[in-house]
Amino acid sequence: MPARPLVLHVTADYPDPVREPTTRAVKQLIDGLTGLDHVVVSLKRQHDPRRFYTVDCGRPDGYRLFAHGYPGLPLGVGLFASFFRVARVIRRLLAANDLRPDLVFAHRLSFDGIAGWLLARHYGVPLVVSVRGEVETKIFRFKPTYRPLLKRIAGDAARIYAVSAWFRPALIRMTGVDPARIRPLPNVVANTKATIVPRAPSRGLVSVLNLDIWRKKGLDRLIEAMAVVGGRHPDLTLDVIGGGSEAARAAIAAHIRRHGVGERVRLVGALDNAALIERLPDYLAMVLPSHNETFGMVYTEALFAGVPIGYSRGTGIDGHLDGLEVGVGIDPGSVGAIVAAIERLIGDNGGYRATIAAKGAELAERFDPARLFAMVEADIRAAIATGRG
Fold this sequence. Notes:
By secondary structure, the protein is of the alpha/beta class. It is built from 14 helices and 14 strands.
């Protein structure tokens, strides 16, 4: 095995300079794997084949980066054909640049995983995959003819990383994969620490989201819940932090007015990550009752800021917090459940904050970036050394 094996990353969630802004979670993971060499192919589906692109972005982060806008139809139509073509383009890119991977890392089981699996088979190298439940759920549910292929990909993978820990039971049930080959891999955040000292809260509730997907993030029902809670706690406020289109802001503002909470629900706007982390400790609780969310880094950021969280059961961060009692799981489809969660979070706020402080070391162990990076790098080296993992 080479001293610095070359890992090929196939991902649709990488902030390359060609596409619009997207989550930095995959980039932060790759940046942390400092003992390996990397080549990243950042994918973006294009509805119109005339907008197809392949761009050599050079080495902006110390490793080779290619951006590829591939032609693909909505709703996963022709999914295998699209990613067969993607894999062929990637093979040509690597050949033209004299690059040959020692392992392929597909950052989703479906979509990216199809191309990653084809590439690993072509090069005769191990494959590892991440599971991101938001998209995997859709494929397993709405594309049943793809289940045998996804079962094959999962079965061939040397390691499966559960970014979405909540999806792990369904993955095992639908693929029959050995549970021992699945590891939890939460997205890393910048404010992880073992000693958490909560501040006395000076603000009300907070919710952090992309306003353009406000209904998916459960903000509609959270606003409705504030209308109910406000009658019992007239001084309680909700700050909504995040950017989005003017159309989204207008729709949210109309929803706020419709439910008579204009004095209690405030649209703060976007904050950069440093400003958000600085502001979070002042809040009573962070509440985000999302629907079908892969992970949700803001939940972790809130916890390391000493702030209890209201999070959706069966999605998002659920499954990574088992046994910690640092927040309240919510049925995101029920306004009553959101109201009950808010009542619990504010009624025993001191207790939740004390628990977070007491569980700081355990939270840090579960979410510590250095440990997670070391785990992934060791897995990759083992897979390359044995040809499997």
